[in-house]
Amino acid sequence: MSEQTDWQGKVAIVTGGSSGIGEATALALAERGANVVITGRDEAKLARVADRSGAAKSAAIEPVQADSADPTGSRRVVEAAMDRWGRLDLVVNNAGAGKPLPIDAYDAETLAEICAVNIVAPSLLMKEAQAALRETKGAVVNIGTAVSRNAAPGLAHYAATKAALEHLTRSWAIELAGDGIRVNAVSPGPVKSGALTGMMGLSPQVAQSIEETEAAQVPLGRRGVTADLVPWILRLGSSANEWLTAQVITIDGGWSLRS
Questions:
Q1: Confidence of residue 5 (pLDDT cuts 50, 70, 90)
Q2: Which of 9, 49, 188, 210 has the fewest C-beta atoms under 10 angstroms from its C-beta?
Q3: Average pLDDT of 227-240?
Q4: Closest C-alpha among 6, 20, 87, 51 to residue 228
Q5: Which of 7, 158, 172, 255 is catalytic?
């Protein structure tokens, strides 16, 4: 089965689809003939991504403005896919939350939001999507982080909640195997996705300094780009890989194994 025909007429949900890895994944799916629901907080950014898919005559991207920290959003997102296309084949839990947070800056609201976006939201979306995925023997791809492979001072809760998502990946894979639903994860290393200035809220100057430092730490000599990750997300989500589940694949140029 070719990568092109594999996605014709399929339906996917990509959370955090207005930028970075989520945007690149949604556009790649649409280019291959899949219909995609993308979520995010910024309506204008979502509309821009949807407009970029206009050239794909056989597929569409439908934006749904939804805050992943809002527990009521999961049902609306699944309903958007089912109401328009009547099926669901893939869920990509890409939305993430995190920021530099030393211990003396901990506060309940920030920690609760990180947990809500990185753990609670994917869990509730899984609950709402389970019945539809069972019908198609669909797949779930969770987006973790290679940061969780080592100690992460200042980013401990971001790394810890993404590590929890990777554990959920394995647990869901076994729990849902009887339904034919496969669950895997991709854990990226340093990737040029806009996350440092967007999700992390860093200034462009600080972000550039971090990018340069991280690039020097990667054994393969550069930071990643979304094109390094999207093919793996599509492979893990593809129905052609019907015997692959419960795997967490780190894609980081060797960064997490640096000494």
A1: low
A2: 9
A3: 97
A4: 20
A5: 158
Write a three-state SS string for the chain.
CCHHHHCCCCEEEECCCCCHHHHHHHHHHHHCCCEEEEEECCHHHHHHHHHHHHHCCCCCEEEEECCCCCCCHHHHHHHHHHHHHCCCCEEEECCCCCCCCCHHHCCHHHHHHHHHHHHHHHHHHHHHHHHHHHHHCCEEEEECCHHHHCCCCCCHHHHHHHHHHHHHHHHHHHHHHHHCCEEEEEEECCEECCCCCCCCCCCHHHHHHHHHHHHHHCCCCCCEEHHHHHHHHHHHHCCCCCCCCCCEEEECCCHHHCC
Q: What is the pLDDT of residue 38?
A: 98
**Sequence spans of domains, the chain:** 3-189+226-248
The answer to whether 3 and 234 have CB atoms below 8 angstroms apart is: yes
158 is catalytic: yes
Which region among 42-51, 58-67, 68-77, 190-199 has the lowest average model confidence (pLDDT)? 190-199
Architecture of domain 3-189+226-248: 3-Layer(aba) Sandwich (3.40)
Residue indicated by tokens 């393969």: 220
More confident residue, 207 or 114: 114
Question: Could you tell me the pTM of the whole model?
Answer: 0.94
